[in-house]
Amino acid sequence: MSNLPKIAWIGLGIMGSPMSENLIKAGYSVTGFTLEQDKLDRLAAAGGTVAKSIAEAVKDADVVVTMVPASPQVEAIAYGPDGIVENAKSGALIVDMSSITPQTSVDLAKAAKEKGLRVLDAPVSGGEAGAIEAVLSIMVGGEQADFDEAKPLLEALGKTIVLCGPHGSGQTVKAANQLIVAVNIQACAEAVVFLEKSGVDLAAALDVLNGGLAGSTVLTRKKDNFLNRDFKPGFRIDLHHKDMGIVTDAARNVGAALPVGAVVAQLVASLRTQGDGGLDHSALLRSVERLSGAEL
Asked: What is the dihedral of CA 106, 91, 87, 40, to 10 degrees?
């Protein structure tokens, strides 16, 4: 029998499926639940155990990991008679890796504590590729002792793992991350259209730019998306729209101005209204192309 903690995994989407599989590869026993049968079949094929409900998944778990799209989904799986808080065993650690509002994380930690449970908010950055390769950046909020306990598990999922402060801090840092990523993608998209309209060899230009101060993880990860107009979702515009709402609202609450971020948030929102919400966030290129006269 393994001495590793038993894991319940709730949410097996684009990120959750490869992340849970990396825990299985690392030797953890993972019991999962999600709403899509094909995702449950995938977990079973990877060596995980399929549960029929959240309650069944979490009842014997030492650690409950959640990875769902937004605050409403976290609240839906956490609360109520069939939720995590009512059904997890006393002393269990909930590690919420969703990207949600900081206040939602604070509220969950408070509610869980009343039931003898502990919580870390631990959102991630790195997209689908980072999840598959187990090189995610994981920003954590919560107690030091709980972070220390969870760190070996998190090390099976990512490379940069940092406790950023008390409950909600991980989500605040993730909001800042999403601001930086969106603005960076927008800048790259504008550069791509400018370069192409100028008749420059785009592949060569992006290579040399990425070797200098203009280089970034965003450009490295998204260069082929730009070159091939391949917008298969690694991180959907719909989700980045949600995240830009989180960061603009949080910034307003603390009195921080986001002049560039506010513009990019509107560009992300406009992509959704044009039917591109299901595409990868590198599809911000499509917005620049439309503004530059292209008919898509």
From this structure: 90
